Amino acid sequence: MLGKNFFLNGHEFFIFEDRTISEILYYFNYQNCLFVIEYNNLICDRNEWPHIKINSKDKIEIITIVGGG
Asked: Less packed terminus of the chain by CB within 10 Å, N or C?
């Protein structure tokens, strides 16, 4: 079985099984609600995360929301 490489916040990772964005976020312990996902240069709707499977060369950026005053 061949693996897939993907990029998360600019770092390359490899997976050997199909994984969704939600599964990747859970694995890396991103459980905070205050972020959005940029998936292959497009903002990705949170409701779609469980349905989008990671493919080779995909780029995922986690963009945190910071409040201030």
From this structure: C
Non-local CB neighbours of 33 within 8 Å, separated by 6+ positions: none
Tokens, residue 63: 């963009």
What is the phi/psi pair of residue 47, to 5°? -70, -20
Query: In this structure, are residues 14 and 58 in contact, taking their beta carbons and an 8 Å threshold?
Result: no
Q: Please name every residue paired with 11 in a beta bridge, in sequence order, or none if there are none.
A: 8
pLDDT profile of the chain (69 residues), mean per 10: 90 95 93 87 95 96 81
As a whole number of angstroms, the longest Cα–Cα distance in the chain is 51
Across the chain, the runs of DSSP E, i.e. the strands, are: 4-8, 11-15, 35-39, 42-44, 59-64
Residue whose pair of structure tokens reads 């996902």 in the numeric block: 37
pTM: 0.86
